[in-house]
Design brief:
Layout lengths: L14 E6 L2 H6 L10 E3 L3 E8 L9 E9 L2 E6 L6 H14 L17 E8 L24 E17 L11 E7 L3 E4 L2 H9 L3
Antiparallel strand pairs: 1-6, 2-5, 3-4, 5-8, 6-7, 7-8, 7-9
Length: 203
């Protein structure tokens, strides 16, 4: 018996990254919120376990939850002439830390904030939703490619590392740049309503 609806998992190759820079960071990195990426990797959280021993309990320690640590996330894209936004974010952070440039340390102005939130939306493939007779359709409605099916938002991100790939005169590859960011947590939206709300919350 054939399945009436398609229940395939969300594909991992159709996504959009929006870096929500503000203030001087936005000014110095024009277009940072509009660049595309080839790979996003590293989304994870690890919860610390704190153990303690109790007198008379000789078989095992008690365990309870400690702090949660969010791993850095890496964004990768090709190198394009004139598209230096990721490098400029790294430079803005460096200038802020050294007390030079527009992002000056010691200023409490939010205009000098080197942190920003990052929103990642994952879109479904046209054949991963709906019925087999009308792939991508929802409740009999014609398919609308580009519907977001999952999203996650990273909070208070700033550059942890920036790198350019090696050069090789014997190869025929492309140059790739990578920006790894630290962040202070993330939330995941699993349905269209939550995705809309997440995108509207400052991003």
């Amino acid at each position: 018996m054939a399945r009436a609806t398609i229940t395939d998992p969300v594909r991992n190759f159709k996504f959009q990254v929006t870096i929500n820079a503000t203030g001087n960071l936005q000014t110095q990195t024009q277009g940072l919120d509009k660049i595309g990426f080839a790979v996003v990797s590293g989304l994870s959280v690890q919860n610390e376990m704190v153990g303690y021993r109790e007198g008379g309990m000789n078989t095992h320690p008690h365990k309870f939850i400690g702090q949660s640590d969010f791993a850095p996330i890496t964004f990768s894209r090709g190198v394009f002439s004139g598209q230096d936004q990721l490098y400029k974010w790294q430079q803005f952070l460096h200038a802020w830390n050294q007390g030079s440039g527009t992002g000056t340390i010691g200023s409490t102005s939010t205009a000098n904030n080197y942190r920003c939130d990052i929103l990642v939306k994952v879109f479904d493939h046209p054949v991963s939703a709906g019925s087999y007779s009308t792939p991508g359709a929802t409740d009999g409605v014609a398919p609308s490619p580009g519907n977001a099916r999952l999203a996650f938002k990273l909070f208070d991100c700033f550059p942890a590392a920036y790198s350019l790939s090696d050069l090789d005169a014997s190869g025929s590859g492309i140059m790739v740049q990578q920006l790894t960011v630290h962040h202070e947590g993330f939330v995941v939206a699993w349905n269209s309503e939550d995705i809309t709300a997440l995108a509207g919350a400052g991003g």
